[in-house]
């Protein structure tokens, strides 16, 4: 009976609580959870559960997520031996999404503050668990994105982690995919990411990139080159637009195209100058 909404009758009360009964089991109904007054014999509808202190609790304030219904739950704690604890709006009770439902790589587990799309279930021992929405359900919830979404900035929550890439649900409830080549680091489950739409597919789903646009990347790359120039005693570096791409990639960690755009920006803003066989910080 735990983890369900039931109609119970009031059997007793004291200064702090009413006590209600359902099928022979007594539940504590804290008076702070209601503005109403009840008498013995009154019927009241609410949610039954066991709190973290192992007390049977009745609350007329229904949780944000009920069995068979899905919603976003914020991760409140992470325990590698159990799973992640999520807030569904129950006083004194978080529900656990079992580690068995999470990635074998704990580094990709949800972090505190991440949001998971879950429902709740109760096992044979009457323990309430959080259960992740499967991919088929998320597809049913998702809307078809219009072609006008191309190149738009978006916010999305990570709902699936796979070897082929990261699946997300945007704030507008569009289904999206991030290929590993379109991210610097793999997001964690439930993480809120910011990206841009690089393709709208025929089925209305989105291809998303977490990498900046070329013109947005120039300042970061340029700042990195300036930092390197400042850190060498001569304030010079032996790299230029004719340098080997592999040498540039090895030293700066960026492509030759990115290097040329960054240098062009620094030349245009007067922060560096060209010298024979390289670049130098402008005095």
TrEMBL record:
Gene3D superfamilies per record: 2.40.50.330, Nucleic acid-binding proteins, Winged helix-like DNA-binding domain superfamily/Winged helix DNA-binding domain
Origin superkingdom: Bacteria
Pfam families in UniProt: CvfB_1st, CvfB_2nd, S1_2, WHD_CvfB
Keywords, in A-Z order: DNA-binding
Record-annotated S1 motif domain positions: 66-133, 149-211
GO terms for MF: DNA binding
InterPro entries attached to this UniProt entry: CvfB_fam, CvfB_S1_2nd, CvfB_S1_3rd, CvfB_S1_st, CvfB_WH, NA-bd_OB-fold, S1_domain, WH-like_DNA-bd_sf
Family statement: Belongs to the CvfB family.
Name of the protein described by the UniProt record: DNA-binding protein
